[in-house]
Design goal:
Blueprint: H1 7-29, E1 43-49, H2 50-60, E2 64-70, H3 84-92, E3 95-98, H4 107-111, E4 120-123, H5 124-127, H6 143-160, H7 165-193, E5 197-200, H8 206-211, E6 215-216, H9 221-228, H10 234-245, E7 251-255, H11 261-273, E8 276-280, H12 291-307
Helix pairs in contact: 1-3, 2-6, 2-7, 6-7, 7-12, 10-11
Amino acid sequence: METFFSKKETMRRRKWAVTLAVALITTACGGSAVSRTTASGALKVVAVENVWGDVLRQIGGSHVAVTSILKDPSVDPHTYETDPRAAAAVSSAAFVVLNGLRYDEFASKLLRAGSSQGRTVLTVSTALGLSGDQVNPHLWYSPTYVRKAVSVFQLALAKADPAHATDYANGAKAFLAAYQPYVETLAAIRRAHGGEKVAYTERVPGYLLQEAGLSLGIPASFPQAIEDGTDPSAADVDAVSTAMRSKAVKVLLYNGQVTSPATDRVKKLAADSGVAVVAVTETLPADQPDFQTWQLAQARAVQTALAA
């Protein structure tokens, strides 16, 4: 299996795959009219990340037909290779939703394929006023950003489809009600464990930890290096090893989608040292019924590990 640190060749192949997909869809769509609704009249919506796709699905209900591109928890989103089907979906969509913050840059070429007339592109980070290379792009772990994104999605759908504006408002309200247990679980962690130190192999759950009042007990440059696809420094590796062996951190949150020999060693060292390991993912797993259930399960796993 290819690791995160052999991704130079993967990036080259991804660029080739995107170019091929764009070429194929551009040829297929040449000059023909684009229908941005299904036969039943539902708006065609494409979400690059399935986490945002599920949020849109819940808000839009039967009035939207959502296609998500990044949806496989076994795939590293940073080295994802698209295909002609994704390009075709983007070309005919009424709405395309991106995360932004350089998390899904590959989608830019897909957006240039086919006609853009009648299509709305929403970049979540832009809508939230976020920019810069240092911003953690995993926005869906933040209750603040999720609530704001829900409002943005609701208003955008209502503008495109005023006849069902009330339904979109009700969908947003129902989503937030089902999301509240996640928010309450983070608050409970803060009350019981605020200030305690944990570690993660990448910044995926960074906003979860921030909301729960937990602190990072390893150098921030270690997970940043993993996320950037570079080798952590020897000093950082030593610091992380020491934190695990001494149990200076209570929990290691391990992202199984972006792995390498370095992260595998940290995971094994944590297990050998008696530090609890909690798995997290960047995408909504297929075995989870919805966004809220998935996020709540991860938050409760952290809560249980801290209390052990």
